[in-house]
Design a protein that fits this description.
The chain is α/β, with parallel strands linked by helices. The protein is 56% helix and 15% strand. Strand 3 and strand 4 form a beta hairpin. It is rod-shaped and about 110 Å long. The N terminus is likely disordered.
Length: 287
Amino acid sequence: MGGKLGKGLGSLLQNNNSILRSTEIADNSSNELQQLDINFLTRGKYQPRQDMDQESLLELSESIKNQGMIQPIVVRRIGDHVYEIIAGERRWQAAKLAGLSQVPCLVKELSDRNAMIISLIENIQREDLNIVEEAEGLNRLVNELNLTHENVAEILGKSRSSISNLLRLNSLSAKTKDLLRSGDLEMGHARALLALEGEIQENTAIAVVQKALTVRETEKLVKDILHPKEKKETEVDESFEQLKSNFSQRFSNLNVKCIRSGNNKGKFVLTYKNQEELTKIKQLIGL
């Protein structure tokens, strides 16, 4: 596995017997470097990656054409002339595009559990894994290996808060995940949308994309959706104050009281002290 893994992996394994046994077996399994027929390889069932950027895949295939495949693909044998890819599916796909008939493979003897550990961790640490795939991979580590957020953070060399924030993305609706996966939404947008659910979340996510809202604007939109009464109350207050001001100006020099009783109800009270003020009121209201 690559150099991005946190130093917590070793120390964590010393305190976690179940994972320790799995990893010891993986580390001590036979490592046999072979040139295998490219058609003998099959996609790994623990691969978290769902989408591959075609442009970068073509770039990698050109590199393989010019320089060959420098890093071998990690596989395990699961049948006669059948090898499951544990790490390196992107290199395999690029090698096929490059027209290679054989690829260098590191053949390991791995149980399903060990294969899952290596595949998930190796792929999660890659920079080109999209954020949804990373969140789903982390979710499998937590649920299938019974790890805490802190455990995963130590293994991957990340902060616990970043792991927790990524794991929360798994509760997004399918449509919102699609928009996040495609890059139409960013992490900040997604975190704001987590406060909404179901169809409301999806419709809001679509609106955010269509209006090209910033993260801050998205947070405000979500807040307005969650607290519509507060927004309406503010609008009513502003309208009432404006009406009160207009009413006072129209009946200046008179005793005017503006009383609001709630539920869009209220009253304006004009009090006169003498016949002259009553006459003035009649004139102003057209009587």
